[in-house]
């Protein structure tokens, strides 16, 4: 379980980017974080895995307070926080298998990491996960030879190799075509259920948030102004979050075939 209490993030003397956020996410739950660019979505995810240092507040993962951890304790805690990136963050010259196994770097010795001599159990797990997401036949192929959707699947498997207790996805579909983005959302939804894994997805595509998540959290200027079921995410909520302007990608998604929803554009939070 992920528990965030009164989370504040301020850069210098500027107005806080995050203003006292409170959020609890249960296992198996897929939560979409929506909001206009600059709302604080990416900052929130990066505070959870401590890529950005929170100014104050509490972030607990299965009872462990993450905010105060330092050095070795922080490294060990980060092993339990999987991250899927919009830009994939793969090493192009390495094979798919080598990229996937990099998810175990926090568990192996420096010698094993440098020589890429991973335990047999890690290699076996990598193959099983790659088979699960349909990329096992690319194991020995260089990462830069894959399509965007295939590269994102590699990123998902790499995160799962950490055996995470929570999975964070920062705009995982924004660089993909519409059909592929639907497939990635279905994959994340399925993995959350299969692995009893809480998943937080920072996403611009409102239609996909409605179709493939259990819960939607809406941010505006660093403040949570909506937290509820997709069915309750109505026009009033959209107007409150996006300021009355047309929300991005607000089309009808069809989970069965994924043919109607539009994929998100490659956009980032300003913060």
TrEMBL record:
Compositional bias per record (Polar residues), positions renumbered to this chain: 253-262
Enzyme class, UniProt record, top EC level: hydrolase
Gene: phnC_1
Keywords per UniProt: ATP-binding, Cell membrane, Hydrolase, Membrane, Nucleotide-binding, Translocase, Transport
Organism of origin: Halomonas lysinitropha
Location(s), subcellular: Cell inner membrane
Membrane topology per record: Peripheral membrane protein
Domain called ABC transporter: residue spans: 2-246
Enzyme Commission identifier(s): 3.6.3.27
NCBIfam families xref list: ABC_phnC
Entries under Pfam families matching the protein: ABC_tran
Molecular function via GO: ABC-type phosphonate transporter activity; ATP binding; ATP hydrolysis activity
Protein name stated in the entry: Phosphate-import ATP-binding protein PhnC
